[in-house]
Amino acid sequence: MLKNYICRDNQKELLLFLSPSEKRYLAGKSIIVVFILNYFFYQSLWAFLPLSGIGFLYFQLERKLLLDKKKETVREQFKELMLLVSTSQRAGFSAENSFISSFNDLEALYGKDSSICQIIMMLKSGRENNIAFSKLWRQIGESLNIEEIREFSQVYEISQNSSGNMASVMDKTADIIIRKIETEKEIAVLLSARKLEQKIMNIMPFAIMLYISMTSPGYFQGLYHSLQGVLVMSVCLLVYVGAYILSIRMISIEI
């Protein structure tokens, strides 16, 4: 997942972003959505212009969902890192050595190009250049904008500056973060059936309209070629779009 990160201003700043192929995929889906909406609600060339706004909105929603999925992947890998670091510290390793030594295990799990391995390589490179781990973690947390990593970076920096019991603090912090991530995974499993239902309900209006159009040709023609019909279909479209956005928010639960 090295392609999911970029470097700016010659600093080791990590940012999640979409690859060109992913952007093309989402753009293609958005164009198909615009054509489908035009066919079922208007069947007119003039409708492509206003519908392009809905296509852009769909692109942004899908982009956010895909970025959230990438973040979940990084968070899951970060959880495994915390488990390995906690175990290493109980065995007597220092915090910094625990992070570095976890590379081989994480490489075996996720591959050398995985997000977490790239982060560890960044930490190793930073240490070789005498950059404090606390500063590196702060940069990583702020750049990735992942709550668990950002919170960990803050606790790590405070612990390091206060010269406290680093092993104990790290162990407790890791336990809290791991429990939170595991809880969110359990919620995601419980919501999986609801997500499937949401997808089915999003498709059902079009399936019904397609069935009626095939069994009763011309049934909707009066709605496509009159001002009153266009207004009715526009209201129906707005209701559908609102219901679609609401359904996404209903199945998006954050802790």
Describe the structure.
With about 260 residues, the chain is mainly alpha-helical. It has helices at about 20-40, 50-90, 95-100, 105-110, 115-130, 135-145, 145-160, 165-215, 220-225, 225-250. Helix 2 (about 50-90) packs across helix 3 (about 95-100), helix 2 runs antiparallel to helix 8 (about 165-215) and helix 4 (about 105-110) packs antiparallel against helix 5. The longest helix is centred in the C-terminal third of the chain and has 50 residues, at about 165-215. It is elongated and about 75 Å long.
Task: Give the arrangement of secondary structure elements.
Blueprint (H helix, E strand, L loop, with lengths): L19 H22 L6 H43 L4 H7 L1 H8 L4 H14 L4 H12 L2 H16 L3 H50 L5 H4 L2 H24 L5
Helix pairs in contact: 1-2, 2-3, 2-8, 4-5, 5-6, 6-7, 7-8
Radius of gyration: 25 Å
Largest sheet: none
Number of helices: 10
Distance between the termini: 26 Å
Structural class: mainly alpha
- The overall average pLDDT, rounded, is 82
- Would you count the extended β strands for me? 0
Gist?
The chain has 255 residues and is mostly helical. The chain contains ten helices and no strands.
Give descriptors for this structure.
disordered N terminus; 255 residues
